[in-house]
């Protein structure tokens, strides 16, 4: 097993996914849930993120080529999706109890599972490592790295309930507003990066 490749990929993906940075957003979106529902939401989010990253690792470039979609478009779409979620957090819409039975699943899938965990950064990084891989052993190392990162994220989200008990409802409300502001900033950065990448692509094509 190539430990150097594993370490490089594991650290890269872990930094991009940023489990500690995910905690405020996760708590803001699941703060009103029961401990059981919050744990289930975390598990569903991680499983979805794992599935999305694996799919893009295996067939990402082929899929994007078939749809005639550039990577910056994926990045811009993720940014726009996060803008909507950030606005909900900032306006307090998520504090209202929902009558939908699928609330847990909805929050777990979007935005936690994707685009926060399995976002453009994680997808692109994984695709680049797959392109660099040479042989079955390297592919196995990358697969192990993906599972290791997602397991780490799951552990962080699983035990985030301890923070909820410490913060109490008032603390969660403050955290929700802060998380909304941070998400809005991440969204603007994603859209700006996507716009810059498009300009660069078309400028290169013109020459």
Total number of strands = 0
Radius of gyration: 18 Å
Please give the largest β-sheet.
Answer: none
Run of helices and strands = HHHHHHHH
Secondary-structure class: mainly alpha
**Approximately how much beta-strand content do the residues carry?**
under 5%
Description:
It is a single chain. The protein has 207 residues and is an all-alpha fold. It has one domain. The protein is built from 8 helices and no strands. It has helices at 3-17, 19-30, 35-67, 71-91, 103-117, 120-132, 136-158, 161-206. α2 packs across α8 (161-206), α4 (71-91) packs across α5 (103-117) and α4 runs antiparallel to α8. The model is unreliable at 95-101 (pLDDT under 50).
Give the helices and strands, then pairings.
Layout: H1 3-17, H2 19-30, H3 35-67, H4 71-91, H5 103-117, H6 120-132, H7 136-158, H8 161-206
Helix pairs in contact: 1-6, 1-7, 2-5, 2-7, 2-8, 3-5, 3-6, 3-7, 4-5, 4-8
Concise synopsis of the structure shown:
With 207 residues, this protein is mostly helical.
Label this structure with key terms:
globular; 207 residues; 8 helices; mainly alpha; 86% helix
